[in-house]
């Protein structure tokens, strides 16, 4: 029964969020709570020669200043610092570990005081002298010649270089995607509550409480039952909360040092010392026959990483899923620089790599005088070429068709600079999006009580993605209860296991864990109901029983039913509790992906170079949509991110100092309300009986992929100018 | 503003170091800033100012160090954490509250400046358990995801409605652009405000 799954159910945590009742990591308070303020390094590379905290310590209200030379013990072994999302290669950053400076903005001291204002002021009194190492480097492009190949997303097929050189039509170019920062609205924060005897309850801004729990146990040398991590509400993260961030170490270290509860909230500026989407040069080469059939695809990504960890994602391999070509070659290189390690940021790899690929496809279409959709259909791949596998489902053709129809693509004049609206140039562009449909083991516990209410428990986080709501929907349907009777408890390290919330895997993964536990409850209720004296379900096979409208009912004949509350009373059960760890069957027979077709309209003021994105249509094929309301919002949010990536977002480094120049949310531009106009989200019907029982694929990433390219292609169509260096700011159009 | 009104830090380091060198700039800037701070405020940490606020209809008296912002007074001193800190620099709007009915960034307002003022925060919008029409509209239109900017968006929208300027979608977009939403719920925020205005 699907009373809720697939509907536009409002968020179950909505009331908490619109009334201010929802509490985020830096908002939990206890008696005696004190506040830490971080002091950061102001050089990119070197050593701390002298760190004088005496003046800071003189300020009334300052309790202590922690530094590498004055702190409780931290783990020495690299393994202890490797969280579950840490890159394989390298040694993670350790805050306040030693005197070595690895990046500008690195935390070097924590001033703890009774009030936040006092700690912030005293932090300005910490005197630091450095032994600077002026050999630092922070610029990707000048470091390109010393890039190291670290990854091949797929093995090469055929002779791509030869086929490219011999192709009738060839397009080859570099596309540059700058460093971008997540900038979730919530500041990174941790409240470490001192529970006595070295035990801590840690409220942390994280996408994975279990990841942080394991990490803290390792770096602080604690037993699992000495630390509990919670993140009931997360004010956005977009990947920045996948790895434990340094404030959680500083806050817990402070609590252990002072034997008091400590809160550490980073400033917006300090958050630019955390991870980011790495600046990347995407080199794409496409060779085609005159009719558009691809002969060769080459894609090489060269991206920033730190000197201490090799962060690399799949930027360059996506053509393998999208476009048929007999010859292909994909690689990923890194340039190690004196910066902090990049981290996953919404659709890591794909957002940048597919952007370049889809701009290149547009350039090829222009050169071949083909409609961009026609070129993509000509090369359409029904199989994942890397493993030569069919897809569990791939309704990308339908995405092109539905998106084009909704957008009015057939009215497009293909010539650049051919369309106008009064004084503005009008451009229409399109692009393809693709992401993986991943799923992970997740466990849930469901407790059904005799009053017909159920509680669902899981360690998974809801970072705004809607996990609370879809878990409640799936549980309500599976247990046959109204959604008001379901309560969901998430993001507590004492709850059943879940991986970090990321990669678009949580919807499918958590939903099937709920189904599994609910199935066990159904079995138990069926047993009770069939055993009741003069039961309408006497002797019924448990497989024939469903839970619906608060009853245990015969699947064939719903009037044969017993109220759940009656069955539990009969069994003298106050509660039925079931814990289930769901594993998805290993199946390498199919490729699993989500797809989209994105259409964008821009209007460009030619004198001023101002670009407005007036319309976006995103047609998405992502299996079954569990909640059309929150699902639409996720795609819409992804489109807004894509607009930011295309036109606004860029972290600018002054390479003379190795320091970020726009480390604030006024000079790092993100889209504001006035930048966003019509966004039309279309969910294309995509039945998928293969991927999992519900046919769910996940929506967190697919919304952004392809959007920046669709906009860049629209800008070309409007102006005749091909900007390959993102973001497309007005200065680039005017020169 | 006369040139002499600006802090002298920029000119001094140039005069002293002669050229733009990383070492010179970082150390000089740091030194000057610290010494100015010391001279101005080091002795004032313990000096507190009694401040009277009427928050959501309740009179509260606080003894605050003078540089405490209204935002920190609400969050840290009154435990009203519905008002959010997103930047502390007036750049994001997450801290928007109503002061005597006007929407302001509470992070740019010193608490002592609002002595005697009526403050309405997100916690004060619902009455007797009934949501404010804007709160209900935000739920109906899914005008948020993570929820962190939401109290500021709703308080800002309440101020906008009071200003009588939520005429059409373009006007709402423009006048709500001081409130950033990183989840990208903007079209839903506009739709929610239109619902609350009664002009869909």
How would the blueprint of this fold be written?
The complex is a heterodimer of chains A (735) and B (200).
Chain A: H1 14-19, E1 34-40, E2 46-52, H2 54-58, E3 62-67, H3 78-81, E4 100-101, E5 107-113, H4 116-123, E6 127-132, E7 148-151, H5 160-166, E8 169-177, E9 189-196, E10 199-204, H6 209-219, E11 227-230, H7 246-258, E12 262-265, E13 280-288, E14 294-306, H8 319-322, E15 327-337, H9 350-368, H10 372-378, E16 383-384, E17 389-390, H11 396-407, E18 419-421, E19 424-436, E20 442-449, E21 454-458, H12 467-479, E22 486-490, H13 506-531, E23 545-548, E24 551-554, E25 561-563, H14 564-570, E26 575-582, E27 593-605, E28 611-621, H15 628-647, E29 653-654, E30 659-660, E31 678-683, H16 707-719, H17 730-734
Chain B: H1 9-17, H2 22-41, E1 49-55, E2 58-64, H3 70-77, E3 96-99, E4 102-105, E5 118-120, H4 133-140, H5 150-163, H6 169-175, H7 186-197
Parallel strand pairs in B: 1-5
Antiparallel strand pairs in B: 1-2, 3-4, 3-5
Task: Give structural notes.
The complex is a heterodimer of chains A (735) and B (200). With 735 residues, chain A is α+β, with helices and mostly antiparallel strands. Chain A folds into 3 domains: 19-134 and 184-267, Aldehyde Oxidoreductase, domain 3 (Alpha-Beta Complex); 348-437 and 592-734, Aldehyde Oxidoreductase, domain 4 (2-Layer Sandwich), CATH 3.30.365.10; 440-582, Aldehyde Oxidoreductase, domain 4, CATH 3.30.365.10. Helix content of chain A is 24%, strand content 26%. Chain A is built from 17 helices and 31 strands. A 7-stranded mixed sheet of chain A has the order 3-5-1-12-9-10-11. In chain A, strands 7-15-14-13-8 form a 5-stranded mixed sheet, sandwiched between helices. In chain A, strands 18-19-27-28-31 form a 5-stranded mixed sheet, with helices on both faces. In chain A, helix 9 (350-368) runs parallel beside helix 16 and helix 15 crosses helix 16 (707-719). Chain A is globular. Chain A starts with 13 loop residues before the first helix and ends with a helix. Chain B is an alpha+beta fold and 200 residues long. Chain B has 3 domains: 3-44, no CATH class; 49-124, Ubiquitin-like (UB roll) (Roll), CATH 3.10.20.30; 133-197, DNA polymerase, domain 1, CATH 1.10.150. Chain B has 7 helices and 5 strands. Chain B has helices at 9-17, 22-41, 70-77, 133-140, 150-163, 169-175, 186-197, and strands at residues 49-55, 58-64, 96-99, 102-105, 118-120. A 5-stranded mixed sheet of chain B has the order 2-1-5-3-4, sandwiched between helices. In chain B, a hairpin with a 2-residue loop joins strand 3 (96-99) and strand 4 (102-105). The longest helix of chain B is centred in the first third of the chain and has 20 residues, at 22-41. Chains A and B meet through helix 1, helix 4, strand 6 and helix 15 of A and helix 2, helix 3, helix 4, helix 5 and helix 6 of B.
